[in-house]
């Protein structure tokens, strides 16, 4: 069920009305039930799978927490659960390549072989909804509990509440247990919380379902046949794709955070003016914050972080972000994107540690050149996200660098509008105090903005690009 669908609107309104008319002690149970119903719209079979995964993690916490093997075995279980569903065909393809078995490299052929071998008609490994997100949440909880960062006893229903929270099931943000643990017992919503929640939802709808949809017709037309378009068109596409990703993803998380506010929860911010960065590292302190901080705390730092010298730090960057790239999908393009991201961060770190200065310290000149360099590197790297394979990505990059002739970029106007909208929202994220509005004015303008956004909504439900990860 899509957040921007009419069905979800009815679902949320019903949940909201019942939820706030229940005693506090029943609210978390009703929210679990509502989240289970929401999950059922994706697949009722995978609902039982998710309940099983929650139960196994609770058993680890309840009965085996003191064991020396608790952490590696419990984390291993969650990683294997993710690996089976998300990387089954990826690993089968690798086996097929190394052993020279073509049928392992073809999904349809492999499904046919397994259907016959297992006597299971129509066998197929399907990716469960939100498995990438809830796996990260389980791992962070297990590690934080073992480190003593979580002091309370985690009962079955508390653990279930942490995972079964439908506002974050599609787009995150990726929660930490301590972010929400105390909020389940006595959720509260003041008038300002309700107004702020409705503002977040309408802003998210505007970003996701109005502006990103307006520009999607142009950029996805280029995605469909990159070889036909000129180098200039492809370069324009990578810039606008970065804006599209921001609007699409931050819009969904704004909706999620707004629904959280309306249910009495304060959920973590996920974007903070990402394209107002000052370097490669600064970008990741602004973009998909709950993901980048998870990579830092549960991969990069456990690998040694920056404690063992420059070379080891660079290795840790590349390994951590390589795995982060694979988290996005079972595809060599994503792995390469992650490794490249780690490489950019490594080069930046080497220059800093060795005090190497490439650009002169001239006011605004160094900052401008650095910004344009980082923007182009990151934007061109995202070609790996919208091309089907590595060869197509290389061909697209070549067309940009040799400035190939071809079809011009189609319909630039919606993309320019999207760029202006993105700059506006970046400004509000970077300097929130300058855009602060009193409750009286926020309340007065809220219905007007809602009407304008609803009138601007296109027909149908736009897909969430990041949902495929």
Automatic annotation (TrEMBL):
Keyword annotations from UniProtKB, A to Z: Acyltransferase, Cell membrane, Membrane, Transferase, Transmembrane, Transmembrane helix
InterPro entries named in the record: Ac/AlaTfrase_AlgI/DltB (IPR024194), AlgI (IPR028362), MB_O-acyltransferase (IPR051085), MBOAT_fam (IPR004299)
Keyword presence, Metal-binding: no
Membrane topology of the entry: Multi-pass membrane protein
Transmembrane segments: 5-22, 42-65, 77-101, 121-143, 155-177, 197-216, 228-247, 326-347, 368-387, 407-425, 445-466
Gene Ontology BP annotations: alginic acid biosynthetic process
Localisation per UniProt entry: Cell membrane
Name of the protein in its database record: Acyltransferase
Naturally occurring in which organism (per UniProt): Leptospira neocaledonica
